[in-house]
């Protein structure tokens, strides 16, 4: 998939001469949609400029064909000849360039056709975007966001009576994997997250359910703006195949076999149209303030609105800006001719909310585990469960290690008087990636080391030194804070300090409150096992870091506790118990 094959600085002024530079420019334009220049190379042009058009991948072929026609008889503006050059560009890449994100191409196109006006709203929040982007972009076409599935699949709703609930975990029987574009890359992914949030609500239970949705979808999320359905379903979809959130045009392309490399068997996928239907609108956006480029932008748009290219977009599986299908969609299998529900765009504010939810829940974790091995951990969990609190804590640690993916940073300390008479804690496994496969270094499977360490944990005895250890662990985590990760301490404890520490609970709360930085938050997630006479103290300690306390005497609750803890990322730095 091309992503901006050739870029020519529009400020470059090429005088007509038979030189190596001229020959190179001809080759560039041949590739980028200017083959017709061979017959009309600009002899007599006082100056030549290039109208750089960045188009979303699915629409680029039609625009490149239009560029060839535009360049066959290039317009001249006061002696300046302008040639259109269309490149495929992911909307997120252009947005990042406008925002000046590190590592992105600082060049901004003269015309931008993203997949959705929502991208334009987001881009205009940047200083550069507000300066150069037109305020009233007009759509070239539309395509509703649908849920694709094998047409022969069982257990799915009527395609024209679907609901977004079908994308939630365990909503269908049989259950199916979900594929979507990473919301940071495409609006179809943002739409799925927004729909899930809208369906679930915004209370604590909804946060937990949304956490399960993101954890289910994130490992398979596509990192490009478009999903090639051939890579998901092959030539003949298996009836047990996954659900995929994509634009309707992608389903048409698959079913029609309309790929540049040739045809594939068609009519194998069904598009499900959820109630609460969203659509892409492919706006035509002027992104230059150069007077010559502005005039050329208007002329290129006028060409695109001629019958030839409006029909070309319909023939490529898009709908009109008003949502009407062309003959290609009408004759395709697996698609609805008339939309069963009104389709709307997603405003920028909704996209931002969806991105926040996704990024908070999908963000990699950096967690130091503090495991209590004091004499209190040897006590039974409850009257109905004779296993020791430490046994349950170790089981919780093992479960947590299975729940977190390889890109998690994790380490382990044990704490109690019996571990270290001076500090009350010792480092068993240093903080680092669960799995480190960096080239040129010896592979380090920290997950295995942590599991081995968990198998060897035993009661060491003495007081817990809980408060001292929490302060030392917090200092360690804040000094080694990693941006772009959720930094936290996970504390597995019997929940009692009992005066064993050098500091009091009140002093610990004061210290943590002073050290907590909302811009670089490190949070405490405390899981206390068994009856807790000191629960209120633990809650005050966690609150000082926007953290959470979970108290349980039921070992079966551990999995739910971890999911709840992850869902609390959505309220940091303003959480309270």
Structural features, described:
The protein is of the alpha/beta class and 577 residues long. It has three domains: 20-139 and 283-317, Periplasmic binding protein-like II (D-Maltodextrin-Binding Protein, domain 2); 143-280, Periplasmic binding protein-like II (D-Maltodextrin-Binding Protein, domain 2, 3-Layer(aba) Sandwich); 363-570, von Willebrand factor, type A domain (Rossmann fold, 3-Layer(aba) Sandwich), CATH 3.40.50.410. It has 19 helices and 24 strands. It has a six-stranded mixed sheet with strand order 2-3-1-4-13-5. Strands 6, 8, 9, 10, 12 and 14 form a six-stranded mixed sheet that branches. The longest helix has 15 residues, at 348-362. The radius of gyration is 29 Å and the shape is elongated.
Number of helical stretches of at least 4 residues = 19
Total strand count, please?
A: 24
Helix content: 25-40%
Beta-strand content bin:
15-25%
CATH class of the largest domain: Alpha Beta
Low-confidence stretches: 1-42
Question: Which structural class is indicated by helix and strand composition?
Answer: alpha/beta
Largest sheet: 6 strands, mixed
Fourth-level CATH superfamily of the largest domain:
von Willebrand factor, type A domain
Question: Whole-number radius of gyration?
Answer: 29 Å
Q: How would you sum up the global shape?
A: elongated
What name does the CATH topology of the largest domain carry? Rossmann fold
CATH architecture term of the largest domain: 3-Layer(aba) Sandwich
Quote the distance from N terminus to C terminus: 48 Å
Give the rounded overall mean pLDDT.
86
- The side-by-side strand order for the widest beta sheet comes to 2-3-1-4-13-5
Number of domains: 3
């Amino acid at each position: 998939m091309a992503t901006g094959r050739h870029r020519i600085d529009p400020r470059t002024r090429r005088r007509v001469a038979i030189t190596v530079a001229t020959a190179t420019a001809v080759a560039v334009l041949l590739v980028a949609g200017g083959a017709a220049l061979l017959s009309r190379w600009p002899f007599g042009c006082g100056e030549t400029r290039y109208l750089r058009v960045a188009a979303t991948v699915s629409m680029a072929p039609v625009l490149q064909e239009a560029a060839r026609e535009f360049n066959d008889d290039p317009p001249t503006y006061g002696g300046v000849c302008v040639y259109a050059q269309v490149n495929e560009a992911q909307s997120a890449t252009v947005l990042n360039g406008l925002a000046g994100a590190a590592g992105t191409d600082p060049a901004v196109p003269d015309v931008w056709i993203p997949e959705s006006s929502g991208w334009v709203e987001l881009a205009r929040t940047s200083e550069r975007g507000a300066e150069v982007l037109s305020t009233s972009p007009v759509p070239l076409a539309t395509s509703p966001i649908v849920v694709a599935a094998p047409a022969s699949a069982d257990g799915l709703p009527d395609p024209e009576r679907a609901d977004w609930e079908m994308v939630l975990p365990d909503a269908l029987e049989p259950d199916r994997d979900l594929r979507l574009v990473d919301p940071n890359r495409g609006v179809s992914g943002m739409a799925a997250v927004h729909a899930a949030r809208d369906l679930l609500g915004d209370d604590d239970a909804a946060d937990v359910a949304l956490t399960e949705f993101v954890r289910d979808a994130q490992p398979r999320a596509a990192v490009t703006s478009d999903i090639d359905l051939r890579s998901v379903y092959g030539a003949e979809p298996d009836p047990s195949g996954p659900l995929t959130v994509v634009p309707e045009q992608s389903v048409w392309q698959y079913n029609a076999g309309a790929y540049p490399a040739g045809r594939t068997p068609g009519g194998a996928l069904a598009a499900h149209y959820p109630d609460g239907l969203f659509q892409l609108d492919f706006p035509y956006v002027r992104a230059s303030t150069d007077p010559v480029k502005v005039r050329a932008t208007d002329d290129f748009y006028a060409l695109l609105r001629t019958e030839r290219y409006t029909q070309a977009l319909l023939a490529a599986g898009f709908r009109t800006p008003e949502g009407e299908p062309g003959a290609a969609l009408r004759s395709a299998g697996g698609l609805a001719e008339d939309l069963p529900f009104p389709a709307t765009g997603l405003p920028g504010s909704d996209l931002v909310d969806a991105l926040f939810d996704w990024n908070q829940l999908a963000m990699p974790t950096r967690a130091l585990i503090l495991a209590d091995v004091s004499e209190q951990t040897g006590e039974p969990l409850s009257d109905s469960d004779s296993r020791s609190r430490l046994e349950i804590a170790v089981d919780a640690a093992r479960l947590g290690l299975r729940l977190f993916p390889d890109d998690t940073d994790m380490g382990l300390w044990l704490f109690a008087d019996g571990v270290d008479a001076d500090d009350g804690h010792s480092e068993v496994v240093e903080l680092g990636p669960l799995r480190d496969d960096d080239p040129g270094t010896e592979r380090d499977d920290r997950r295995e080391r942590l599991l081995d360490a968990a198998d060897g944990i035993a009661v060491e005895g003495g007081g817990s030194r809980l408060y001292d250890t929490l302060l030392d662990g917090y200092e360690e985590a804040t000094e080694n804070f990693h941006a772009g990760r959720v930094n936290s301490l996970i504390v597995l404890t019997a929940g009692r300090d009992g005066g064993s520490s050098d500091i009091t609970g009140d002093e610990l709360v004061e210290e943590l409150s002073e050290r907590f930085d909302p811009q670089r938050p490190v949070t405490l997630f405390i899981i206390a096992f068994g009856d807790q006479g000191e629960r209120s103290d633990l809650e005050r300690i966690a609150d000082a870091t926007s953290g959470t306390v979970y108290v349980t005497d039921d070992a079966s609750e551990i999995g739910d506790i971890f999911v709840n803890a992850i869902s609390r990322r959505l309220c940091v730095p303003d959480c309270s118990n």
